[in-house]
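Suppose a classmate hands you a notebook page containing two proteins, each written out with its sequence and a corresponding row of structure tokens. How would you begin to make sense of it? This section walks through that situation. The first entry is reproduced here exactly as it would appear on such a page.
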Amino acid sequence: MSTPAALLAPGLRCLRSGRAPAWGAAAVVLVAGAGCRPESAIDDKTAPRVLAVAPSNPVVPVNVALALTFSEAVDPATVDADPISDGATVVVAEQPRAESLLTDLKTAGLNESNEDDVLAIDVVVAEALVTITPRAPLRPATAYTLIVGAGVRDLAQNPIVDGLGLAAPFRYDFTTDAGPPTVVAADVNGTTLVAPNRRHITVTFNQPVQGVGDDTLTLQPAAPVEAVLVDEARTSATLVLGAPADGCARLVPTTTYTLAASPGIVADNGQTLLPFSTSFTTGAACDTTPVVVTGAVEAIAGETSATVRFETNKASTTEARYGAGEALDCLGAACPALGAPARTATSGSTPPRFAHSVELTGLQLGVTYRVVVSAEDDVGHVARAEATFATAPIPKVGVNEVMANAAAEPAGEYVELANFGDETVDLSGWAVVIDDCTARLPVGQAMPAGSFLVVAGLAFDPAAYALPADVLVVKVVDEDGSNGMCALTNSRAERVVLLDGAGRPVSSFSSTIVPSDDGRSVERTAPEAPDVESSYCRARSDVGATPGRVNSVVVNGCER
């Protein structure tokens, strides 16, 4: 219903009245004067833009309300947060879903087909201030994008521009914090007896915390505490119990204890720990079984880093000291280097085996190093072992293209490699690993400089892609021999890793892009591009897949 002209304030002209939102639809609240503008606005040719977003910190609480301050008043009738209305102009969505919405919001609003991609939000327009409030708390530690489309206009109906003065949509990326800290795991519980000579008791938090000490992480009945150790990431804390006065027991045998963490522990966002406690019972006898490093210590070295792996017979913590020659000083890095505690036995291992891994950094190319690893079990027994290794150049071979959604499933799937170096590379024993599946290349397989190589299953037909005659095609089976080459999944993104004969990661494909069209691959923007998300995009729709040839996106760029 329009407003009678006699009731308008002098100098105002009504544009149109706002509509009341349908029950259950996203709400847009129109403030007094909505739909009307000063007559002077008729000659306004200046596009509105967002001047500020509050909160200014892009890491926000899960119950955040975002406030956008525009350069001038916004017409509330153009602000629509309901995709069911076939005209949503303001949306909030999780990344990377938001990326697919940007194109739609450049020209028109979203339609109801996007309803599942966006969050339910309420929007309040108060002249130049627009407040967006999600109807439900956001997911913790999740990346989101706010998009304001070109359909949002000022009172003179000028479409908004982004912060650089370019055509809309305006986008704002933000991430939710982890919420209140919680204890997500403890290595003692009420179902397994604890040896009375237990030395370490560890809890794990869902995020970095502060304030952990013997007054906030406690045992009842009390036991002597030698130290409270917090890891470098500040996501786990360990009570180190003191030596017994006599005998082997640090805890009283056959006694029930309560381990508690108090709200004196806080997260970096200032929120206090949710109260935590768990009970456990000690056994009658001390654990006298020593921890042993079983088998050899394996070091997989790259150019400036290495991964050290070994196994033990018991659950234990991991650390390593390393250096060139006799000095095990960790080359100036934090020393010793710590690995994640090995708490769970390898599936199917009999007797149980516990796998350890430690990352070594700060290495130099072409140098031989010595590493000494230590494993300490929960009662203080320690085992040590050592190994030597040398760093070496990583061959310049990369995962260049992945076809997961072939027109002819599954025989048409492939992983293309590119040698972007100046030398022929011996691929003997190299492997393509897709999730937990491994397909190994044959001994003697060579790859000339500048060439492409297509790795595929036994049923792959090169004629389906009109491959150039000189392109290498290697047909492989996975190590289980059950799927041909490891199967690629259409419905979700997968991690594809290329390992050399020594087991070193040479290249990886970790794009979150999910192929959506039959016969459309995902390509690297250049063979030498780094292993990051921005180095990949879908093959161009006007070219299609390019196995054995220069990628379509290298020549013509990605389609946006």
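The notebook's second entry, a different protein, reads as follows.
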Amino acid sequence: MAIIQHGILEATKHTDLDLNATAEELASSAKTIYGMEIDNTNNSVDVFVKCYDTNNASPPTVGTTVPDMIIRVGAGKIRSVSSTRGTVSGGNVTPAAGFAFGTGLYMACVTAGGTAGTTGPTEDVKATVYTN
């Protein structure tokens, strides 16, 4: 009997227990995000997680640098985000495509969407990100 894995074949787990308005580096080289969980249960307002495709040679300025991806998480909610699932065809496994960040990965969390938001949440926001 063959066992076939779907989705993430191998990933590194990154956990930030206090994602805030200061951009934090998760990776200094190219990474692909396959999934993430953002926990906003401690806040009574929506938060927006901004992801930037850059590294420490050119760190983003929250409020000025245009994010490459923004994820809204409702007040008091947990949000899971994943890329498309992998596929199996003719016995060949194609892993999930993921969200590619070609230079590096920085993340920040603020209470306003778009590029301009700079105010961090009043309580901790936890992010768990799976990359390779």
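A careful reader of the second entry would note: The radius of gyration is 16 Å.
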